[in-house]
């Protein structure tokens, strides 16, 4: 009898071993690797022989030249991507940055240590996991600190949509389109003096609940929908909540060859800042209410000519940033001519306007209303002379003209109503 049981026992052992291997192999790693991406923006610019700590109104939609103040901004994104036998995948992302907003020309002794602004910082660190069989292959979850769902104007460079902070979320596909919900929190910026006036142990923590649905095909393009419900801790009932929403339309360049992104956004209360622009800077009371419109993109004119453009408007429906009737708008174009594969010529022209009710932010007279013109010529030496060809080294001359000296002073022009900026902007992303 024993010899008859041996094959049966062997078969059972084989089956059990196979089942055990199968159970273990589901989590076996089949792909595991690192990716390194990054960005660098080094702007050597001079105004009458010295560096200056101003962007000449660019963050406020007044100018669109190549005169951001960061002299040595460096950013690295490191991602570890892993895939498993059962289809589950994960990403671990770390984004570090140094020098964003620093305007000083540092030297070798390490004088950076004397300046506590724009130091090395970890901007993002999060994990995203997807491919769970019980959630569906199109579903992923994430947790950590990140920049979430960002969008920025082409020539202004301003991020008008994002959620920047610490949180978690889930993303999936509904009817073939990307849908998700996320909760992101950020502690509010301190007062300009750096003094926290809250009672000990209290923080004015901001929170945004994000709902989004992206990629809806219609009208020759696609639509993205965003809804953000915001709140802030340790505020009274007149300034502890907000609502923001936006609709974004993506398509070609208004029927021509190229691309555009057009958006309308509404924000109130804590969400007054373009409705969907959430981070530590958010906040506002019941009087804060704004509308935001933007449209930007690149037109492919010919084999040698391309043109970037941007039209942006932001205005108070009641108050915005504490100012009644505040409105800002900019119109900007940047034609680009490809001389050869490695040289591109650029010309930028912009007109920016700002106004508000007399007395806003203590302004009166000529400083109540500003009109700013910015004209720039540049030549980009690059490895690829496409509009977005990078890396590039771009010498430029930028001329800025305000309608009066008071308006010029607001954007950092020290004397008179105009300014010439000469610089070399070096940029790379990878």
Automatic annotation (TrEMBL):
PANTHER family: CRYPTIC OUTER MEMBRANE PORIN BGLH-RELATED (PTHR38762:SF1). GO terms for cellular component: cell outer membrane; pore complex. Residues 1-22 form the signal peptide. Gene3D superfamilies: Porin, LamB type. InterPro entries: G_neg_Bact_CarbUptk_Porin (IPR050286), Porin_LamB (IPR003192), Porin_LamB_sf (IPR036998). Belongs to the porin LamB (TC 1.B.3) family. It holds the Pfam family LamB. One of its GO terms (molecular function) is carbohydrate transmembrane transporter activity. It is found in: Cell outer membrane. It comes from the Bacteria. This is Maltoporin.
């Amino acid at each position: 009898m024993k010899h008859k049981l041996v094959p049966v026992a062997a078969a059972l052992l084989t089956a059990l071993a196979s089942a055990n291997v199968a159970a273990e192999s589901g989590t076996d790693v089949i792909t595991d690797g690192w990716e390194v991406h990054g960005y660098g923006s080094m702007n050597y610019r001079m105004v009458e022989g010295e560096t200056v700590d101003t962007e000449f109104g660019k963050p406020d939609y007044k100018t669109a030249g190549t005169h951001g103040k960061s002299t040595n901004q460096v950013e690295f994104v490191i991602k570890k991507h892993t895939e498993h036998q059962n289809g589950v995948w994960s990403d671990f992302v770390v984004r570090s940055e140094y020098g964003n907003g620093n305007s000083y020309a540092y030297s070798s002794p390490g004088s950076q240590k004397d300046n506590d602004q724009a130091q090395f910082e970890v901007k993002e660190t999060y994990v995203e996991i997807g491919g769970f069989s019980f959630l569906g292959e199109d579903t992923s979850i994430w947790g950590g600190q990140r920049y979430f769902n960002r969008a920025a104007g082409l020539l202004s460079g301003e991020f008008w949509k994002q959620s920047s902070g610490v949180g978690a979320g889930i993303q999936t596909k509904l009817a073939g389109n990307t849908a998700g919900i996320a909760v992101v929190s950020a502690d509010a910026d301190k007062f300009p003096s750096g003094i926290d006036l809250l009672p000990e142990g209290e923080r004015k923590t901001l929170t945004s609940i994000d709902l989004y649905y992206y990629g809806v095909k219609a009208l020759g393009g696609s639509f993205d929908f965003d809804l953000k419900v915001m709140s802030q801790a340790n505020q009274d009932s007149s300034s502890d909540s907000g609502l923001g929403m936006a609709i974004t339309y993506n398509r070609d360049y208004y029927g021509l060859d190229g691309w555009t992104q057009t958006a309308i956004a509404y924000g109130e209360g804590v969400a007054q800042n373009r409705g969907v622009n959430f981070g530590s800077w958010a906040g506002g009371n019941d009087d804060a209410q704004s509308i935001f419109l933007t449209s930007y993109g690149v037109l492919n004119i010919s084999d040698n000519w391309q043109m970037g453009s941007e039209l942006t408007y932001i205005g108070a429906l009641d108050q915005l940033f504490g100012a009644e009737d505040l409105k800002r708008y900019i119109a900007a174009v940047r034609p680009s001519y490809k001389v050869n594969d490695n040289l591109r010529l650029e010309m930028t022209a912009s007109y920016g306007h700002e106004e508000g009710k007399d007395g806003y932010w203590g302004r009166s007279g000529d400083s109540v209303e500003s009109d700013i013109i910015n004209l720039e010529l540049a030549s980009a030496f690059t490895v690829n002379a496409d509009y977005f060809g990078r890396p590039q080294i771009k010498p430029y001359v930028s001329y800025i003209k305000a309608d009066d000296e008071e308006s010029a002073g607001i954007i950092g022009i020290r004397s008179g109503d105009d300014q010439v900026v000469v610089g070399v902007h070096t940029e790379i992303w990878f």
